[in-house]
Amino acid sequence: RCSLDDMLAWMRMWLSPEATPAWLSPAQRKAVWTSHMPMPVSTRMRAWENSHFSAYGYGWRLSDVDGVWKVAHTGTLAGMYSSVILLPDQRTGIVILINGEGEAARAVLGQVLTKPFTAPQSSPTVAYYAAQLEQERASERAATPKPDTRDRMIASARSLAEWAGHYRDPWFGDVALCPEGDRLRFVAARSPMLAGTVMRVGERWLVDWDDDSVDAEPWLHFAMVPAGGDARLTLSHVDPDADFSYDYADLDFHRTQACR
Fold it and tell me: What is the mean pLDDT of residues 66-75?
């Protein structure tokens, strides 16, 4: 955990390398802020920042804002959003710390605080960016509406008996999809917070997590592996706008044994 003073000290260290020459050599600093992975320039970056390139260094996102070099990183945890924005050529830095679920606020504040240094002749207001963001989200909601799951019901263990068992993903590890009473429970061995009850929504299945702070529910997709294989389980987001950090789509579970 870092206070604002800690973050400002961190920022000054990067913007004034001569103050701490022994901490990182010039070669190391150059490597950290060198483009190692090209990234797409999003529609928002083009519209808001007039960006021409986007890449990833070592722990930092590299881009330009109105032709001014920008180095930045963000932080996102439950109940906390943060951002560090550096304009190294101007020795200018911005720290944003938000004690709440503030993704939109972080995006808007980052723009409003940066623009006076990159395009002082045209500095849009908070209201302008907030309206732009709402239009963007309205278009996304219209294109991929969030499904209505209010009629969810607890799925009976019997209705999913064919798919019950212990599953394993090579990276994530083991999960149990086993009965507790007349319901089926999803329990991850390595992530205790990922435990919940399987619910039925029409002809689909999702996991209702016990811990409300886990705010991205997954659909469960079952299939039989051809040529004599066992059951396969994949996951996807119920809410298309869910935090990408819940990388359900990367998981590929295969059943290893029956429930005990």
Answer: 96
